[in-house]
Write a structure and sequence with these properties.
By secondary structure, this protein is α/β, with parallel strands linked by helices. It has helices at residues 41-52, 81-96, 153-172, 187-192, 207-224, 254-266, 293-303, 316-324, 335-339, 343-351; strands at residues 8-10, 13-15, 19-21, 57-64, 100-106, 134-135, 149-150, 177-182, 231-236, 271-275, 307-310, 330-333. Helix 5 runs parallel beside helix 6 (254-266) and helix 6 (254-266) crosses helix 7. The longest helix has 20 residues, at 153-172.
């Protein structure tokens, strides 16, 4: 059997294949009123199409644990029960197609309060939709961005609680995998990196202190997430600053990631979703097919923690080789699944695998 189409079990959950959908924001929720942050028909159709296409696990886009945790005002949220009800419609359909529904829980930190990408993605300043971003330290993300408010230890504890509350709601909404978003320069990643964390208290300075907030979030989510269901963590394995930038300040490195992965494993994380970058807007990143796969492979080899690889994985043979060579346990597809919702079905035909096929589509199998 093709490695790409072997089922994969974490705790008591079996995912039918290793073609997984990476979280990709749609920036399409309502902004104001009681339906702010609520998934609607666009989100249902978007995720349903990938489930019908045979995707084994769908990780719903970065979903904010609070209104201030959104990237844009049009992000999905999971801070109230109305949002839970809307998600339940999606998770029920996904499971009916044999797809495991997962969700990424997120807080944007200093990269929050920005416009939708197709409207330029600029920070919202003096706009009715804007809010004041929060961060570990009062350091701007980039030119034109507002100086974020430095979080107090009381506020940090409140956000840890918001992640736990979001996990409870995610379970009530029918999700079977929870992923904590610690990558791409959002709040958790901002705490991890010395580039963005200049605190002098117990949340800054040493590796242990910079990791504290992330591990508190993991512990809080794991405490409310069922023992039989897996917990993922998404990380940027490197900020791409140490060797590929003229910035004199070091960032988070691959060595840090391996060290942190061991901590995550000890705290009950079942799989590391390995991405890179996002913290420093002008870091030089050597983008190419599978350019992030070596970081995933290193974590898997040196720690034994299962990993998923992501980043310009676009071809079934390429994906199959990543798994067959032991570089990762699964592949996460982003833009390729935007282009081709039925990637898994097409890959199965090419590699001799099998995926769930709705009865209505059997005439096309």
């Amino acid at each position: 059997m093709s490695a790409l189409f072997e089922p994969y079990t974490l705790r008591s959950l079996t995912i039918p294949n290793r073609v997984w959908m990476a979280p990709m924001c749609q920036y399409s929720a309502e902004v104001f009123g009681p339906n702010a942050g609520v998934a609607h028909d666009w989100h249902f159709a978007h995720y349903a199409a990938r489930a019908v296409g045979g995707t084994g696990l769908i990780l719903v886009e970065a979903t904010a644990v609070s209104p201030e945790g959104r990237i844009s005002p049009a992000d999905l949220g999971i801070w109230n029960d109305r949002q839970v009800e809307a998600f339940r419609r999606i998770t029920t359909f996904l499971e009916g197609q044999g797809t495991v529904p997962g969700i990424q829980l997120a807080h944007a930190g200093r990269k929050g309060s920005t416009d939708r990408p197709w409207r330029g993605g600029a920070p919202l300043v003096a706009d009715p939709e804007a809010w004041q971003p929060l961060a570990p330290s009062p350091l701007v993300y980039d030119e034109g961005h507002p100086v974020p408010t430095e979080l107090t230890t009381v506020q940090i504890a409140e956000i840890v609680g918001q992640f736990a509350d979001a996990a409870r709601r995610a379970l009530a909404a029918g999700f079977k995998v929870a992923e904590i978003h610690g990558a791409h320069g959002y709040l958790i990643g901002e705490f991890l990196s010395p580039q963005s964390n200049r605190r002098t208290d117990e949340y800054g300075g040493s590796f242990e202190n910079r990791s504290r907030f992330a591990l508190e979030v993991v512990d809080a989510v794991r405490a409310v997430w069922p023992e039989e269901l897996p917990l993922f963590f998404r990380i940027s394995a490197t900020d791409w600053l140490t060797e590929n930038s003229e910035d004199e300040r070091d960032g988070w490195t691959a060595d840090d990631t391996v060290r942190f992965a061991r901590e995550l494993k000890a705290h009950g994380v079942d799989l590391l979703d390995v991405s890179t970058g996002g913290l420093a807007p002008r870091a030089r990143i050597p983008v190419g097919p599978g350019y992030q796969v070596p970081f995933a492979e290193r974590v898997r080899t040196e720690t034994g923690l299962p990993v998923a690889a992501v980043g310009l994985i676009t071809d079934p043979v390429q994906a199959e080789k990543i798994l067959a060579d032991g570089q990762a346990d699964a592949v996460l597809l982003g833009r390729e699944l935007l282009r081709n919702p039925s990637f898994a079905r097409h890959a199965a035909r090419e590699l001799g695998g099998e995926v769930h096929s709705p009865e209505q589509y059997h005439r096309a199998v």
